[in-house]
Structure formats: C-alpha cells, structure tokens
Amino acid sequence: MQNGRRNSKLNTLVLTAMMMCLVLVSTYFFKIPTIATKGYVHLGDAAIFLSVMLLGKKNGAIAAGVGSCLSDLIGGYAYYAPWTLGTKFLMALVAGLFLDYAAKKSAEKDKRRHVLSAFEIFGMIVGGLVMVAGYALAAKVMYGTWAIALASVPENIGQFSVGIVISVVIATALQHTPVRQFFTSTSMCAKSAN
Questions:
Q1: In the chain, which residue ranges form alpha helices assigned H by DSSP?
Q2: Is there a contact between 71 and 86 (Cβ–Cβ < 8 Å)?
Q3: Helix (H, G, I), strand (E, B), or coil: what is residue 42?
Q4: Nearest CA to 122 among 93, 153, 99, 155?
Q5: With contact defined as beta carbons under 8 Å apart, do 50 and 171 qualify?
Q6: Is the pLDDT at 187 greater than 80, yes or no?
Q7: What are phi and psi of 33, to 5 degrees?
Q8: What are phi and psi of 82, to 5 degrees?
Q9: Would you say the C-alpha torsion 34, 19, 83, 96 has a positive or negative sign?
Q10: Is the separation of the CB atoms in 170 and 85 below 8 Å?
C-alpha cells in the first residue's frame, strides 16, 4: 500500500515536471511579440489548460506558473517573470477549481462524457479572464498608464481563447488513448471502470 502511494506521488511529480516543460516549450517557441506592452502572445495557454485537466488545480497551477515564468526568464522578458508566475498560477488555479468541481459532480453521478461541459469551458474562460486582468494590472504598474494596460486586453483574450480550443481538441483526442487514465480533473477523461 505504501509503495502504491509512493509511486502515485512519483507519477504526479514526473507529470507535473513534464507539463511544466510543455508549458515552457509551447510558450517560448510559439510566440508573437506585441508592440504596446513589449510582451508577446503565445500558445502556452493551451498547455496550461491541458496541465489543469491532467494534474488538477494545485499541480496544474504549479506547472502553469513555473513553466510560463521560466519562458520569460530565458526568453528575454525577465521583467515580466514575477507577474507571469503569479498570473499564470492564478489562471490555472481558477480554471482548475471549476474543472475539479465538474469532475466531482460527474463522478458522483457516475457519468462519463466525451466532451467538456459548458461549466468546464466557462471555468476556463474565467481563468483566462483572471490572466487578462493580471497582465493589465502588470502593464499599468510597469508603464504607468491604463492606455497600454487596456491595449493588452484583446490580445490576451485571443490568446486564452485559442488556448481553450487547442486544449479541448487535444484532451478530446487523448481520451481515445491510454493517456486517458492520467487525467484527473475533467469528467470527460475520468478513469473508466473496466
């Protein structure tokens, strides 16, 4: 029994590290610089939402915050790193709260689905809006004007929206593979009973 717990903790640690790396890579290599905020938009939000679906709110938030922060540090955006750490952590945590609640309710009903519920998508949107607000606040503090802060809003909304679509497509595809057993947060990827 103790060996099983140790293996479970080790699996969680390894998956968290892997998702942290996936967040880092998808943020660092797939980015488009923005002029107004001197930041960038990227595909890392897809990996963040996937991390939350795979790891749950706590470990998903750690992978999201640290992976995104590392991308800023090695990519020449160190001035954003502290903001990114907190903002992406909160983004994933908020989305994870919704996803975990939906998975719990689905498990109580012993109901398995092949798509995310509207409630789960709404939770991802709320998490994305937390990220938008966090970066708007960061821009206001760093540049001293709400004009620049507000200029970042549309691009960040677009970034997390694309991230939601990509993560849902990937999670839906993965439910037909053995990887399905590793998902913890989404009711669509709940472990099968057989």
A1: 2-28, 44-74, 81-108, 118-143, 146-174
A2: no
A3: strand
A4: 99
A5: yes
A6: no
A7: -65, 145
A8: -65, -40
A9: positive
A10: no
Place of tokens 């998975």: 103
**What are the tokens at 64?**
């999201």
Closest CA to 56 of 96, 24, 12, 86: 96
Amino acid at 131: M
Contact 47, 23 (CB under 8 A): yes
State how far the Cα of 190 lies from the Cα of 16, in Å rounded to an integer: 18
Cα separation of 152 and 102, whole Å?
A: 31
Residues 80-107 have pLDDT tens digits of 999 999 999 999 999 999 998 888 887 7
Q: What are phi and psi of 46, to 5 degrees?
A: -65, -45
| Each residue's pLDDT tens digit, 168-185 | 999 988 888 888 777 776
- 17-63 pLDDT per residue, tens: 999 999 999 999 988 888 777 778 899 999 999 999 999 999 999 99
| DSSP 8-state assignment for residue 36 | S
Give exposure, 151-187, as e/b (b: 16+ Cβ within 10 Å). Answer: bbeebbeebbeebbebbbebbeebbeeeebeebbbbb
